[in-house]
Amino acid sequence: MYPYYPETVRSPCLDYRNGPPAQQRLTFVLVHGSWADARFWDDIAAVLRRNGHVVYTPEYAGHGGDPNKKVTHAMITKSVVDFITKLNLRDIVLVGHSFGGTVIQKAAEQVSARIKRLVFWDAFVLKDGESLADEVPPQTRQGFEQLRASSKDDTIMLPFALFRDSFVNTAALDVAQWIYASVAPEPAVPLFEKLDLKAFYALPTPKSYVYFYQDNVLPQGEGFGWNPHMSTRLGLFRLIVGDGDHMTDSRTRPAMVAQKLYEAGRD
After folding, report:
1. How far apart are CA 185 and CA 34, in angstroms?
2. Deepest in the core among 2, 43, 147, 248, taking most CB within 10 A?
3. How far is CA 214 from the centre of its chain?
4. Residue 74's pLDDT is what?
5. How many Cβ atoms from other residues are within 10 Å of residue 235's Cβ?
6. How far is CA 27 from the centre of its chain?
7. What is the value of pTM for the model shown?
């Protein structure tokens, strides 16, 4: 027989008769990935702010308005670290999307005391001594190397067909074309640099992984993929799952993405 719990002892936080409780107020720092810039977050950040959160979207070296494509991973990381320290941000939820996962791995080594939680959204979690290029399928790496060799400034520009089927595979064609119009060539060097991550793997910082199961950037299944291949490298972590792809939902369903990031970042 199930125990009886009278109305008077129910927790007020579970009483939704007057609507769901307000969200815990968080401070987000959102770090974008490759073939994107800080505008990637505009719609998601707007939703989070409407929900009462403080949101920052730093741009990093070689992206956005920076014409210099001769950047290193350390320069990119420094952009994020300097942004956090100059604004004296504390108790932050530091979010990395895609390549941004490697950036928050390295940034966390330098500003761990300022971080409440790390959130990786379909993001690379590299092992110590790896590069991002080490974690893509051989045919993808070969394609990157060919595109890099054919560029005049050591960048990689994704062909539309690859972008459409890998990054925005759930989007209608017109939406895919609209998103692709904002894509810029990506500096190649940071994608091939091997990173020393010994300090990252010694950090006790709480971690979450947001996995969108229609994301086709990495192949599904064993050996590659976002979850569990990347996510379980975090050790003890919170897993939040959504039904989106790699980029489409940042434009078409920002409220859904914002809610998943909140679920990943809250206490």
Report:
1. 9
2. 248
3. 15
4. 98
5. 8
6. 16
7. 0.93
